[in-house]
Write a structure and sequence with these properties.
This protein is α+β, with helices and mostly antiparallel strands and about 400 residues long. The chain contains 13 helices and ten strands. Strands 4-3-2-9-1-10 form a six-stranded antiparallel beta sheet. It is rod-shaped, with a radius of gyration of 33 Å. The two termini are about 30 Å apart.
């Protein structure tokens, strides 16, 4: 090991240009191979995602105690996920107030309800992404929708159904009109707080809308919905449903979405062939660089031979030097890729991060080192077949 370290040190000192080329070759190869692995996985997932046309899904909770699935706990759970999960996504919570629970199940299931529409951006709650369409569409029949400032600051404003909606003859609407009728000053008392009505909505007519930031954390959430501008991605659906299922178990009834699964055997076979081709090309280029170094050190190795070093040991010495150098540089390249490049790539390729784990990095690393070693050893075996006497004639 001592001589290997000395030889590598001399290589860096005497062949600096070639050493830099070796670093660049291994670094670029490692990055390309690991990126190709994740990018191919990303493309496969995107292809299957295109076959799904669902733009929304919902989750209903069955918590008889009204103490487990609360707005505060649920918001903490949602905010623990990455922001890109909620890109162009409007989230709706249907809250029911614990303090106003009655013995009348009909009233409980329809009356004591508020809707909270919002979005998540930069790790905080803000206005729903579909606010503009609500403002311009038929949902908002009069007045204005919430502003981002009102939602973020928790201002006590609400959207209510038009007053005449409570007098259409429906028992449910009559109960709502009786419970949530406007006060003399035009405000609405909801869960003990006076809300200023800024508009009227003709959607889920018996349910007032309020900013989620104004509702108490102990408010029970009966339903939760996710409405995407485009189709629901596999990653978003899986991450949201997995964390909800892990947190609430059987209390959560999740609307199923049909996503096709990747054909694992076909996927990994194709990926294996792709990686072998890339690694083989990289190994050939790397062996050419090491071949040049070997030719430069031919006289040095001949002297070693004259001092008693056998041909096999000389080959092994040079092989271990190259293998050690390649392994160390490759590991540094993987660290650079994972901690520096991957967080940036995740912004553009949402499925790429799911491709990587210690296992996948290990498999790719073993493949790279293994194939490169075979190519390298064949080159060394061919180039170091000279006879000492032949070499001495050239000295």
């Amino acid at each position: 090991m001592k001589y290997i370290a000395i030889n590598i040190k001399n290589f860096i000192k005497n062949e600096t240009d070639i050493f830099v080329l070796v670093i660049m070759c291994i670094l670029s190869s490692a990055i390309i191979i690991n990126f190709a692995f994740g990018f191919y996985h990303h493309l496969e997932e995107k292809k299957l995602e295109g076959e799904n046309d669902s733009k929304s899904f919902g989750i209903e909770f069955h918590d008889e105690t009204r103490a487990i699935v609360t707005k505060g706990d649920l918001m903490e759970t949602l905010l623990s996920l990455d922001d890109d999960i909620y890109e162009n996504c409007t989230i709706c919570l249907e809250g029911r107030f614990v303090d106003e629970k009655t013995e009348d199940s009909a009233i409980d299931n329809s009356l004591l309800v508020v809707s909270m529409y919002f979005g998540i951006q930069d790790g905080k709650v803000t206005i729903a992404p579909n606010a503009e369409s609500i403002q311009e569409g038929n949902v908002l029949v009069d007045g204005d929708y919430f502003t981002a400032e009102q939602v973020e600051n928790g201002e006590l404003v609400c959207l209510a159904p038009p007053p005449e909606m409570g007098h259409s003859g429906s028992d449910e609407q009559e109960r709502w009109a009786e419970k949530y009728s406007a006060n003399e000053d035009g405000t609405y008392t909801i869960d003990g707080k006076n809300y200023t009505c800024i508009g009227y909505v003709d959607w889920f007519s018996v349910i007032p809308w309020v900013p989620v930031t104004t509702v108490a954390d102990n408010c029970y959430v009966k339903r939760m919905g996710f409405l995407y501008k485009n189709t629901v991605t596999r990653r978003a659906y899986k991450e949201i449903t997995n964390i909800v299922r892990e947190k609430y178990g059987e209390l959560a009834e999740i609307e199923p979405l049909n996503f096709q699964e990747v054909d694992s055997l076909k996927f990994y076979n194709t990926l294996l062939v792709l990686c072998i081709l890339l690694i083989s090309m990289s190994g050939l280029i790397l062996s050419m660089l090491y071949q040049y170094v070997l030719l430069q050190r031919r006289k040095q190795l001949t002297i070693y031979r004259m001092c008693g070093l056998t041909n096999i040991k000389a080959k092994l010495l040079y092989f271990v030097e190259c293998l050690f150098l390649s392994t160390v540089i490759y590991l540094l390249a993987v660290v650079f890729f994972h901690f520096i490049m991957l967080p940036y790539l995740c912004r553009f390729f949402e499925y790429i991060v799911a491709s990587y784990s210690l296992y996948s990095y290990s498999i790719l690393g073993l493949m790279y080192i293994g194939i490169s070693s075979v190519i390298l050893y064949l080159m060394i075996w061919h180039q170091m077949g000279w006879n000492i006497s032949d070499e001495l004639r050239e000295v």
